[in-house]
Structure formats: structure tokens, C-alpha cells
Amino acid sequence: MKKLTDVVAILKGDPRADRAVPPTGFTAQLTLLTAAAMAFLGVFALALSLATARLAERWAGELAQSSTIRISAPQDQVAVQTAAALRVLNQTTGVASARALDPAEQRALLAPWFGPDLPVETLPIPQLIEVIETPAGYDAEGLRLRLRAEAPGGVLDDHTRWRRPLVAAAGRINALGLVSLALIGGVMVAMITLAANAALSANAQVIRVLRLVGARDSYIARAFVRRFTLRALSGAAGGTALGMAAIALLPKADPAGGFLTGLGFTGAGWILPLVIPPLAAVIAFWSTRLAALRALKEIT
Amino acid sequence: MIELDDVSYSYGGDALLSDITLRLAPGSFHFLTGPSGAGKSTLLKLCYMELLATKGTVTLFGRPARDIGRDGVAMVRRRVGIVHQDCQFLDHLPLLENVALPLTVSGQSTEAHMEEMRELLGWVGLASKLRALPPELSGGERQRAALARAVVMSPDVILADEPTGNLDWEMSLRLLTLLVELNRMGKAILVATHDLNLIRQAKSQVAARVLRIKDRRLQLAGADL
Fold first, then answer.
1. Which residues of chain B have a CB within 8 Å of the CB of A22?
2. In the β-sheet with B14-24, what is the strand arrangement from edge to edge?
3. In whole numbers, what is the pLDDT of chain A averaged over residues?
4. Do A232 and A83 fall into the same domain?
5. What was the ipTM of the complex prediction?
6. Rounded to an integer, what distance in angstroms lies between the CA atom of residue A182 and that of residue A186?
7. Which chain B residues are closer than 8 Å to A19 by Cβ?
8. What CATH class does B1-79+156-166+176-225 carry?
9. H or E element: which one contains A131?
10. Considering only alpha carbons, which residue of chain A is nearest residue B71?
11. Which domain holds residue A252?
């Protein structure tokens, strides 16, 4: 509670204490610009992270609930094996529904490669069966064994082979976004600490005089901490506003869209970047406080 | 209030002060003299903890200096008024705010003390310079302002390091008179100076002890003064 009171007192400020430390133009601008730039980048890293999280979730969710059985058999066996496979599926625990795709659906699937007028009925192409799983899912290995016995031309593709790398890739990009956010925070700590140290060095004589007349370290540190915290807060607020405006101007975020068109915020996601300015202020508060108290130890 | 007991101070292996014993009691007035580089400033710095003794014990207001933390040092300095030869002001603040600085840093309202401050600055002859910035003041004005700042908290002890170093004789006498007045109010005064004329003048006004640093040791100055 006392710490919270201290923080409030620091942010509220003491105009006389503020006057004791002269403003330093260079470090003021450096802190403001750094906070603005880092917040701007932070908004994009956050957008990237959220977009990839959405993508990973969608891929994992959509693909996990469906699978396909491909019946590759001599033409006269296709109908029999399809019926056998559907019978097996109907008896399999964890399968919510199963149906054979009709020629129109198969034609639509092949259209990107062969055009819309492909005569699928006359070609020896495999029959596809779409399987929808229950949330609990089915035993893929058991189903493969039964298909081998009752519909030997049936090959179960549960999408695991290609879903896993996609979900992993999306997960990694998501992690990369989070690492970027952490790095941006780290750079902000470094820059604000450097700027605070520069300000402290530039004001060494002022600090010496203040110590000489009986100022405590916390009193002197407070003047610097308040200044840097407010600069970081206002800089980050500006940077965040610019970043959010830039994101808003990107092509509209499609909740079900691809990676690039989905790079943006949706719904409540727009609230998340607003956390960046207070976070920057917290970073500035502690960076400056630690730098100030460390520097003050050098002065008796 | 301030006691140095068998204190030595060395820097980089060289002894600057050896076996110093000194007591600054309430109402006492001491002059500290000796040639330049004898260690007068060093001794003063030991009294307000800018330096720590390498041997012996410095006791400030009943507490050994070694037991006093950084916040404690700040508290000690609120009870010790320090006048430096180079004054040490904040050049961006007007004189009034500079003189009020000890009040400001101790969290006291300068507005509440405004009348006293004006009176104090009038006492040191700077009533017309309240808004002047330190660089705009003459050497003598700065010295008197430094004295005003040193006493604004009504400290128990006043330490002055060559306070008349930049002043002409008339101004030196004026500053001396101020110090004597403060001493009569019960303040302990320690003035480091090599101005023997000033010491002689003071001895005609106040019962001052004159100490000399010679060969790193403190001794009572004799009849040569």
C-alpha cells in the first residue's frame, strides 16, 4: 500500500522538486521518440502475434474435426467399397457423420487444377468420403485396420501429417511476435536507462548541491523518475495511436482470412494495444528509478 | 554535537590528517587555519560526512558516522549549515528559491516561511536581489547568500570553508559579524580560513578558539595570532 502511495506521489509530482532539476532537452526528446517508436513497433508486433494466434487456432480447430477417406479401387469395386467404408464409419465410435462426396463436389475440388468441366464420372479418380469427428475423436489406427479388412482400397487421411507443421508454424510465428514484444520492451528499458543516465550525469552538480542541503536520494530520484515516466507515457501514447491508425488503414481484417489480410485487430482485440502506454510508463518508472538510485550512490 | 576522536584520513595511501580530536559544542566558535592544502576542507568534509574517516570515530549528534546511512546523512545535513568558498548554487533558480532549497528538500512549505526568508535575505543585505539568478550576483553577494542558505533551517552547527575567500575586507567583516550573531544565538561555528586578520578581528568580538593544522595534526594556535 505504501509503495502504491509512493508511486501516486511521484506521478502527482512536487512542482518545487521538479524545478530543482533543470529540464534536459536532448534526453527529453530521446525518451519521447524512443517511447513513441517502440510503442509503434509494439502495436505491430502485437497485431502479428494476435493474427498468428487466430490462424493457429483456426487451422487447429477446423482441421482437427474433419478427415477424409479416399477409395482407390477398380471402377467396378468403387461403389461396393464406398458402401463398406460408410458402414464401417457408421459403426465407429467418435465419428459424428460420414458421407461420400457427389460428383459435383469432387469436380469443384479438382476445378482449380483441371477447370470446371472435368468429366469426373468417366475418369478413374478416387471416391472421397468426408468424415466429421465428434469432439472426443476416433481411434485412427483402429479405423485403418477395419478399412483394410472391409474396404481395402480405402485410405484414411486424418490431416495430421500436414496439419501439424502448419499449426506449429503458426505457433512459432506467434511466439516470434511475443519475443518481438519482449525485445521491444528490452530496448525501451535500455534506451530509457541510457537517457536517464545521461540526464543524471548532466545534472551531477545539481544533485551534489541537493545532497549538500539535505535532500534524500528518494527526493532527488523522484524528480527524474516523474519526468521520464511522463515522457515515456506520452511518447508511447502517441506511438500507439499512430500504430493503431496504421493498422486500421491496412486491408480489412478478415476473421477467417489468410495471414496477410488477417494482420489486424478484431473486436475486443483493439483494446489490447491500449495497454502499451501504461506498460511503457511502468518500464520507464523502474528503469529511471534504478538508474537514479545507482547513480546517486556515487555522490556523497 | 560534532566530535572527532583520534580521527585520521588517508587518500590513496597518503595520510592527509592524523590523530585529530575536536569537539564542536553548542555555542562554540572555532577557527581552523593552516596553509593551503593542509587539510582544512578535508576536516570540514569529515564533519558533514562528505568524507568518512579512515581511522578513529566521528560522532554526529550522538551517532557514529559509520552507522549513519544515506538518509541519515541527509538528516545530519539539515542540522548542519555549510558555506562553501565556491558557494554551489543551482544557477537556473532565482536567489530566493536557492536560499529556500534546504526547506524545499525537507518537505517544508516555502510559502509558510516566506516572511522569515525575506527577513533573512534582508539580514544578509540581499533583500533587493530575491529574483536574481546566482550568476548575476557578485562574489560577496553569493557568499552572503550561501550563509543565508546555510542558516535557513536554523541548524545547530555552521561549517564555513574559506567564506571570505572572494571578499574584500569590508565585506569580510560584514560576513564575520553575521557569523558572530549566529554564534550568539547558540550555534556552533567552525570557520576554515587562512585570513589571520579576520581571526584577529573576530577574537575582539567573540571567544573563539583558533586551531591550526600543521603536519597533518590539529593544534591550538599560539600567540602568533
1. 90, 92
2. B14-24, B2-11, B55-60, B63-64
3. 83
4. no
5. 0.88
6. 6
7. 93, 97
8. alpha beta
9. strand A127-133
10. A216
11. 2-60+164-296
